[in-house]
Every structure is written in C-alpha cells, then in structure tokens.
Amino acid sequence: MNLGERVRVTCDARGCKARALHPARGWSEVRGLDFCRRHTARRAARFICPPEHRHAEVGTCYAIHKCRCDDCTEGARVREERRKRLHLYGRFDSGLVDAAPVREHVQMLQASGLGWKRIAELTGVGNTAIASLIYGRKGSNRDPRKGEVLKRVSREKAEKILALQPSFDHLRDGALVPAVGLHRRMQALVCMGYSLKVLGAKLGIDPGDMSSLMRRETVRKSTHLAVVALFDELWDVPAPTSTRRERESATKARKFAEQRRWLPPLAWDDPDTDVEPPAGEELGEDFVDEAVVVLAVNGERPRMTPAERREVVRMLHRERWGDPRIAEHAGMTARTVHRIRVELGLPGIDRDEQVAS
Questions:
Q1: Continuous H helices in the chain
Q2: How far is CA 191 from CA 45, 51, 233, 242, 274, in A?
Q3: Which domain of life is it from (predicted)?
Q4: Half-sphere exposure of residue 38: CA atoms within 13 angstroms, side-chain side
Q5: N or C: which end of the chain has fewer CB within 10 A?
Q6: What does 121-178 look like in DSSP terms, one character per residue?
Q7: Which residues are CB-neighbours of 66 under 8 A, at least 6 positions away?
C-alpha cells in the first residue's frame, strides 16, 4: 500500500467492522493486514514477550511460550520454510541421533564408579536429560509417556556424553574404588618390614580396623589416595631397626608377609592394573612363576612352590654358589638346598671353585 495515498481500509480482525482512511492514527499494518486502534493495542498487549526471551533466534519462544510478536512469528515462518525446502532436497537433519549407544556409554561410566549426577556435572548436560536417558521420561502419573525409554537424543548432548571417558580423577573422594591396588601396596610395605599396626598409625586408621581393611573388596577414594601417598614415600625405605622393639617388629612383619607369599614393591609395575600372579598351591607343585624366581634370585625371599625352589637352586648353582650361600640368599635351609641339588643331579662345588659372597 502506498502510504502517500488516502484510501479507506477495514480492520482485518475477525468480527471487527472498524473503517478508517489510511494512514490513520493508532492503526497498524502487519504483513499486509490492517488493524484498528483497539485491536492494535490488544495485539500489542497479547504478544509482548518477557525481555529474556530470545526472539526469532530459536523456536522455543514461538512454540513453547506461545509468543506471537512480529520477530517470533517471522522467525518461525523462515524456519518452517527452510525445513520444508531441506525435506524436499533430502538434506533435512533433525539434530537427533540414536540414544542406545549413548545410554550404553552412560551405563559404562556408572560401572566405573561415576553417578549419573556426577556425569551430568562433568559433561555439562542437565540432570533431567541424563536421568531421562537412563530411567525414561519423567512426568506426572497421568502422563501416558511417563517412563518411556528415549529412542533419540540431541547430537550436541550425545557428543558431550560420549567424550567423557572413565578416569580415576573424575571420582569424588567418597566414591568406592577397587581395593586391589591398596592391598598390594600394603602387602609390599609389610614385606619391607612395616607391620600393619605401624602402617595404620601412619594412615590414621585404628589398628583394629586394618585387618578388615585388608579384606574389603572396595575402599573409598580418599583412603586409596592416602595409601598411594604412603607407598610412594616408603617403597624404597626399609623399616627402621635402631631399637630392639623395631627389629622385632620388622622381623615379624617380614615373616608374616613371607608366609602369605606377599610380593615386595619391585614386583609391581602398576599395583592397580598388573595381573595378579597366581598362587602356586592352586596350580600345583609343578607351577613356576618366573617373576617369583627372579625375585628370589635377587634376594627378595618370596614364598615359593617346590618347582620354583628347584629353579632358584639351579640358577644360583650355575653361578658357582655353594649350598650355604644359596640357602641364606633364598631363605632356605642348607639341608633343603642339598636335597634339591641331589635331586637335580647337580654336583657339589668345591670351596676353591665357589664364588666369594
């Protein structure tokens, strides 16, 4: 319409018969429609959005908040036209992906010790989105879709969730972790001569609780970190033996560890992930663990099976060691070494041929 012309117009609101010469004071024109002063004021009052709404930027304001201001209406029209065009060309992307792999990843993270609220915090995805993904849709009891398993999830949320990988650093201090690493570190320190009572005192744990701690399958992350710090401090420091009481305690601790065939610190590359050496009693007397043999040859005195004892005697005899020295080095009696040597058919070594200790 040419605004310079004076023409008579009629209000396009339903049921309104107002007429005026255009342009008229208080009238408005929206997308080719004319509205009288009364309906212009009514539309303005009805379609004014809160200031925090993102007009015309996203469809939430138009679809959910029912905003019908000019910006939101025009934005919805543009988005709908674009959607139809992409559908026509076969290039439409809803932004949603299959939720099954994402749900499996969340369950894997839960199995590693992360709670679903912790996962939401680390990924930046809302609590409701994570809970709905695991437990189904939320809603009132009258909602027929309540508990429905999500089939699709937005690509942005899926990428954030899948990017999160299990990590010990992600766990809270109170989270439960496997106690395998803690047990191995404590056992290794006992091999060094530190009794469980002494270790408990250093950790601030009551001595009466140390035995139960060594039997638990899981421990708190804070306890695990305390044991790791103590192990890093003492793994290469033998137990003190300056007094008689300290010497007795260290001797009892080493014998206690030897009886249970616990391994010293150098037996582990990573106490948390290394494969546990199988017990000889479970695999028979003929089982030979090469790691145990190497430790015994190096003077660590681990608990050995008969086959491992024979292998140690054979290796040290090859180095021209006499029976007394082998017995002292490997933690056996000289009579046992002599019996094993005779059983293996190894000749005795003269004193002149023996390598000096």
A1: 37-46, 60-63, 70-89, 99-111, 116-123, 127-135, 155-163, 180-191, 196-203, 207-213, 221-234, 244-259, 280-283, 290-297, 306-318, 323-330, 334-344
A2: 82, 70, 15, 18, 18
A3: Bacteria
A4: 11
A5: C
A6: HHHT--HHHHHHHHH-----TT-TTTTPPPSEEEHHHHHHHHH----GGGS-TT-EEE
A7: none
Distances (CA, A) of 109 to 102, 103, 138, 219, 263: 11, 10, 22, 18, 32
Quote the tokens at residue 173.
Answer: 């201090």
pLDDT tens track for 23-76: 677 788 877 788 898 888 777 666 556 667 777 777 777 777 777 777 888 888
In order of 104, 109, 114, 177, 217, the CA distances from 168 in angstroms are 20, 11, 10, 9, 17
**Across-strand partners of 152?**
98
Q: How far apart are CA 14 and CA 81, in angstroms?
A: 26
Q: Which residues contact 278 (CB under 8 A, 6 or more apart)?
A: 287, 289
Distance of alpha carbon 118 from alpha carbon 183, whole angstroms: 27
| Alpha carbon separation from 300 to 255, 284, 344 (Å, rounded) | 12, 22, 23
Whole-prediction pTM: 0.51
Rg of the chain over CA atoms, in angstroms? 39
